[in-house]
Write a structure and sequence with these properties.
Belongs to the bacterial ribosomal protein bTHX family. By secondary structure, the protein is mostly helical. Helix content is 29%, strand content 0%. The termini are far apart.
Length: 42
Amino acid sequence: MGKGDKKSKRGKIVNGTWGARRKRKIKKRPTIEEKINPGKKK
């Protein structure tokens, strides 16, 4: 448990990796309709 542990959140931060303990924030992709009509909003 700590900086060298590959399964802990702190270990993931130190190693610079992502996984179950350290999820990435998901970027919301624009829909096809938003790409076609960028000026219109619902």
